[in-house]
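Exam prep: given the inputs below (a chain plus adenosine-5'-diphosphate), describe the expected output before reading on.
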Amino acid sequence: MAKKPFLIGITGGSGSGKTTVSKALITRLADNNPILLQQDVYYKDQSDKPMEERMKTNYDHPDSIETDRFVADLEKLIQKQAIDTPVYDYAEHTRSSKTTHVEPGDVIIVDGVLLFNDARVRDLMDLKVYVDTDDDIRFIRRLQRDTHERGRTVEGVIEQYTATVKPMHNQFVEPTKRYADIIVPEGGGNYVAIDMLMNQAIAMVKKEE
Ligand SMILES: Nc1ncnc2c1ncn2[C@@H]1O[C@H](COP(=O)(O)OP(=O)(O)O)[C@@H](O)[C@H]1O
Ligand SMILES: Nc1ccn([C@@H]2O[C@H](COP(=O)(O)O)[C@@H](O)[C@H]2O)c(=O)n1
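Solution:
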């Protein structure tokens, strides 16, 4: 029987450094067949809605994610089956018509802002990590990233952050810190924590062999 993959879930507020940590782990675990799955690609399709309506969606509420499909895909990867994930377009606030084919791996790294919100998702994780970065640093990073990479204006980022991102963070993200096995301060720059996570993943993969 194929060995069970080791699943690491990485959550934390928007701009905390989840993706940076996840990608650093993928690089360090290159010899252990790692794959990355981002919860963001499971934001619900809104292609049937006009842009004006899409811009009003609360993307920091758990209802904005297609969690049933996300759970089903995670379960398939754990059973060593390949999946086809949606591709998300932040500038258009919806999915593109493409999909990404993902082959199963021995280490599965999953990152997402609302990752520990659903008990079904939490229960699939072997190691749960919360990246903990100050709100003001997260906001500055988000402002820079969203204006450079996600097609947003400065005014739009500030408005969205105040209206939904911050209140939903306090309601749905920060409280899930209590589910974490490990809390990583400052994210991407914390090489000690990233190396510890890498060593734990390698040890668990070897144990399963
Ligand atoms: N330690 C760091 N120092 C400076 N910039 C960082 C650091 N970690 C992440 N960033 C930058 O901040 C932005 C958000 O980081 P990212 O890893 O995408 O966060 P998240 O996935 O939690 O939203 C990115 O542009 C990234 O390059
Ligand atoms: N159409 C969308 C979809 C999501 N967002 C924001 O993305 C954030 C999560 O991604 P991070 O990489 O920052 O963790 C989340 O806070 C949503 O507000 C968006 O702006 N537009």
